Amino acid sequence: MPRLSHLPTYSRRINGPGPAVGTGMEKIVRTDAGWRDHLAPEEYRVLRQAGTEAPWTGEYTDTKTVGVYRCRACGAELFRSAEKFESHCGWPSFYQPSSGDAVTLTEDRTLGMVRSEVRCARCDSHLGHVFEGEGYDIPTDQRWCINSVSLTLEPAES
Ligand SMILES: [Zn+2]
Question: Is 105 helix (H, G, I), strand (E, B) or coil?
Fold first, then answer.
């Protein structure tokens, strides 16, 4: 069994408080068991238990294919290839999301750090973290560091 199995279930992620309402977006809500059925084990670990895939192992780390990156859990559009950049950090990195409404940010104080956790606004699944002020040559100075397993690339029609 994965070592996370002894941790309490994350009921707050099922019952709220959840992201702000009023955007008109239809929220996707499943029980924890429902997510387990819907996702592969590694997807479930990252998306629903806020896990992190090992660096340089994700399928989209160096991908340059033109297209849209959707939430692996619910299919919502999250990022676009046009805003993906080479961060050399081991995970797919974007300098901004597709839209501000696509994601939510929460403070994450695990691992002795204060980080901003990025979640899908539609289904509240964990995507990764956002870091600011690192000096990358990008328009926003923000590195949206996202797990490949949280994403599905939909290549543009050519
Ligand atoms: Zn989602």
Answer: strand
CA separation, residue 49 to residues 22, 76, 151 (Å) = 26, 19, 15
Domain of 87: which CATH number?
2.170.150.20
pLDDT of 50 higher than 90: yes
- Mean pLDDT rounded to a whole number for the chain: 88
Q: Is 71 a catalytic residue?
A: no
**Is the pLDDT assigned to residue 23 strictly greater than 60?**
no
Span from the CA of 154 to the centroid of ligand 1 (angstroms): 15
Domain count, the chain: 1
22 against 154, higher pLDDT: 154
Taking the model in full, what pTM does it have? 0.83
Active-site position among 71, 74, 120, 145: 145
**CB-side exposure of 104: number of CA atoms within 13 Å?**
19
Could you tell me the residue range of the domain that residue 79 belongs to? Answer: 3-155
Cα of 89 from ligand 1 centre, angstroms: 24
Question: Measured in angstroms, how far is the CA atom of residue 54 from the centroid of ligand 1?
Answer: 21
Give distance in angstroms: CA of 118 to centre of ligand 1.
11
